[in-house]
Design brief:
The structure is a homodimer of 485-residue chains. Chain A is α+β, with helices and mostly antiparallel strands. The first copy, chain A, is 36% helix and 27% strand. Chain A has a seven-stranded mixed β-sheet, sandwiched between helices. In chain A, strands 16-15-17-18-19 form a five-stranded mixed β-sheet, with helices on both faces. Chain A has a four-stranded mixed β-sheet with strand order 20-21-23-22. In chain A, helix 3 packs across helix 7 (175-195). Chains A and B meet through helix 1, strand 2, helix 3, strand 3 and strand 4 of A and helix 1, strand 2, helix 3, strand 3 and strand 4 of B.
Chain lengths: 485, 485
């Protein structure tokens, strides 16, 4: 079976979401060639099409990270086991998933090296050397890197033994400034997800049980997938002075006192590609928002034997006239039919398709087809250079609005526990409800429904009139519940 | 000792090159805050200033890699030991420097995982699944990644246990096409080094003894450092069908025959930052070519108490007028003197300094000082926006020419072995000479002088009239010798 026939079958072989959502997800990923399984437990190969999405994510997020005053750096992949074990909660959280290097160049290592699961400990050990005075603060450093967490069960992009991410690590002279930074980066993530990924998110605080191992407080952005499950899409941690005390990161303040710094860390990973697939994808495959699509516009000539040269020439002329910042592909392959190309580019989620055939040439127009809605539109030739960028903008905007509408339709306010359980067992979406603050209730809800508290959106202690969904007691916390990936 | 005083001493504390070149190199790296030592054997932390250079290298090289038709992808960090051992020469070359993961999440692994020292084997195992037909070729994939080689003795940027690089891996249907690709990427590297890094290189072929473990032929670019030693700055390998046979990468060709693909791989690493330091640096610190300098222009106000506000306002006005693509910093810190700032930015190698004081304001001019030559120039205010970009261009050009002149002055043609030995024992630079092709002569030269054959620049088999430097026999190979890092 040669490549051509194989690809044809790929398009057909996407399992409908209603039939088997997990299989649909894997089908889309494999058939759009975003990823492939590697011959190493839980590791993935990010193929060029998937990596091109990540490059766009990286470029657009890196820009925001730099605009908020951060610089990139690079810290070692390996962390001596002793260093990783210094912060008690941190080691408890990460020890079960650490990969250990025990041999280097045919020698047994005296101390095993952990492959970084996250870099707080190695970075803090450097910060304690670099920071002496209040003049050295704030330290605002970010790192783009691969990290490894030895996962028992994995799922492409969402949970893999190795993944790529950015991790910001900052030091501040006051508690207030650290909290401001934590919330600032949460807001950067929220704005990035909505503007570029067209994914609306709920931003809030994690519960004690769900917070980062070693943090004082963890904030999160939570997105809703089209199967009603939530996906944690980025986190921002106020680390307080936990790590500063353990790693002895002190500074001489303006008042001549030696103080511990206040720290934050925050990260977004390749996981967001999973969100992109599950928020926007449909039964025909991927649907990509223009801002992160590797190809934003594909031009497909409708060729007849007689008019092949004219059509190809004309379509290339038009391509040359379009704004140069549009990521454009002219699919002039002769060995595939136009219909086959339509299917393939739809599966790959290209936001806009432009068709040009002999009849369109006669009528001096192009046909534009939107991937997100399927809407067709005839564009008079003289309007093409204006209309195409405008259409891309509309698609980006409409995709966010559609995702927002879906989320609103799949978010319920609820006070009755039985109703809540039924909703969650069917995984219908978010529930906004109240919680008393007890770990027992959190646990009970998870046991009964598999749902977790995704985040606390507002803590108005002492407010009356609301009751905990699980125990019925007075509940000061307004939270979002959902089943989650 | 607070930060301010510490930094002051940093500037003074650079060891002169003539006194101790190795110490000078380390001083510059630490004091310009390019890098710091990590608490892991042979690993380094690339600090923000060093990483910003690398980001420029990466951006400028990535552009060229994409313009020549390659796409980026990402393959796993871990390679099962068995996979790495498949290609016999390859394993022999890399086994002694492999770091092994033997435990994951508290379980002993059935098969240890190598931390990639290079990715041929993992990538080839994927290519054998992806490639079926001639239509799938060529495969042109590049990866930006960290790799680990367990080195016995290390040196910042030049040889570290972990480093960052790009590695291209391509598959072709014919031997000719693979050889063309190998040479094309060598030329991309040469042009990149000269245009952006202002570093002239000698491009040629490695000897059998020095070629990549598993390659058919290895090509290299070799740069000359200011201490007379060579630095291999990039390599491009024609892998022939070595890996294709072992990993069974076959394709059905147009003639319906099943054939093995022809492959190449090529890489450039953070090592080139070492070249940048040693080619251009001087006793005052770094000297960076504008194309890769994190800050291209630093503006320093000369402030008197009376005229502080006016000068600061004026300098910010001018900064706003300069072309936006210039990477510019206005150093308006009040706690440091202008002289202190001059020293610091010189140490950091910023190509151009612009000074503005009350007297300059009166005379409606700026003073520009070049880092590479120390030349001062008064620029009339109305010419600033034109003259500054022009000066940056001149600096870039002049730096390449100066490096080229140095290399020419430190390259000798030689036929006499005693003279050659004297030259090499003093590490005076390159020798262009002739070689008979025997491994014994190569070995003898290394034993006698520590010099190696850096590359064969031309193989005119059968040409007479030249004799091997070591044995005096007929020598068909024109080669470059040098001591090397």
């Amino acid at each position: 079976m040669d490549k051509k026939n194989k690809d044809k079958e790929f398009v057909k072989e996407i399992t409908p979401r209603a039939q088997d959502y997990s299989q649909w997800y894997v089908d889309v990923i494999l058939k759009a060639e975003l990823m492939d399984y590697a011959p190493i437990k839980g590791c993935m190969v990010i193929r060029p099409y998937g990596y091109a999405i990540w490059e766009n994510v990286q470029r657009l997020l890196d820009k925001r990270i730099k605009e908020t005053g951060h610089e990139n750096a690079y810290f070692p992949l390996f962390i001596p086991q002793g260093l990783l074990q210094k912060e008690a909660e941190h080691v408890e959280g990460f020890a079960p998933e650490v990969a250990l290097v025990t041999r280097g160049g045919d020698e047994e290592l005296a101390e095993p090296l952990a492959v970084r699961p996250t870099s707080e400990s190695i970075i803090c050990s450097m910060y304690s050397r670099w920071i002496q005075s209040w003049r050295d603060l704030p330290v605002l450093i970010n790192q783009w890197a691969n990290v490894v967490r030895w996962e028992k069960s994995t799922r492409p992009f969402l949970r893999t033994s190795e993944f790529i991410w950015q991790e910001g690590h900052t030091c501040h002279s006051t508690e207030e400034e650290a909290e401001q930074e934590t919330l600032k980066m949460l807001e950067v993530y929220r704005e990035f997800m909505e503007t570029e990924m067209a994914i609306p998110v709920i931003a809030g605080q994690k519960t004690e049980k769900e917070k980062f191992a070693g943090a004082l407080r963890t904030y999160t952005i939570e997105a809703l997938m089209s199967d009603g499950k939530a996906l944690q899409s980025g986190t921002s941690h106020n680390l307080g002075q936990h790590f500063a005390r353990v790693f002895d990161i002190t500074f001489l303040d303006q008042d001549d006192e030696l103080k511990y710094v206040w720290q934050t860390s925050w990260g977004v990973s390749t996981r967001v590609i999973g969100a992109l697939i599950m928020v926007h994808g449909d039964d025909r495959g991927l649907v990509l928002p223009p801002a992160v699509a590797p190809t934003q516009v594909v031009m497909v000539p409708i060729i007849t034997k007689k008019q092949r040269e004219e059509v190809l020439e004309k379509i290339n002329d038009i391509a040359g006239l379009l704004p140069h910042d549009i990521r454009l592909k002219v699919d002039d392959r002769l060995e595939y039919t136009a219909g086959w190309k339509f299917n393939q580019w739809e599966m790959k989620g290209v936001p806009l398709r432009l068709e040009l055939g002999p009849r369109d040439m006669e009528n001096n127009r192009l046909v534009a087809v939107r991937r997100d809605t399927g809407d067709k539109e005839e564009i008079p030739m003289e309007e093409v250079t204006k209309r195409v960028p405008a259409l891309l903008k509309e698609i980006q905007q409409d995709m966010l609005e559609r995702a927002l509408k879906f989320r609103e339709e799949h978010t319920a306010e609820m006070e009755d526990y039985n109703e809540f359980c039924g909703y969650m067992l069917e995984s219908k979406g978010f529930v906004q409800g109240y919680w008393c603050g007890s770990g027992n209730c959190e646990e009970k809800i998870k046991d009964d429904t598999k749902a977790t508290i995704r985040c606390i959106i507002n803590s108005h202690n002492g407010e009356v009139g609301h009751n905990c969904l699980a125990c019925g007691e007075k509940a000061p916390y307004c939270v979002y519940f959902a089943r989650a990936y």
